[in-house]
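We recall that each integer encodes one residue's backbone shape. We quote one record:
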Amino acid sequence: MSLKRLPEPDDSLLTLANVARGKGMALMPESMCVSMHQGLCYRPLDAASAKKLNIDVYIGVRKEDHRPQVMAALEKMLANGR
């Protein structure tokens, strides 16, 4: 499986709304993790991954999304820093 990287959108709130609707996931700075959308949760990256990015970044995913593709993508992103 490969992850598709899209350009950064102009509107981060629209991005979070799309994630909450199950249309992907997003890396967000910690400062954006205050936006509350029903069905959205934030997960911190592991320390090694966050250090590579030089900022506190979280992965925004749909709260109850346990689809194999999503879980595999999360594992892949989180494992890259180990």
User: Anything to note?
Assistant: The mean pLDDT is 78. The chain is about 35% helix and 20% strand. The beta strands are 26-29, 40-44, 57-62.
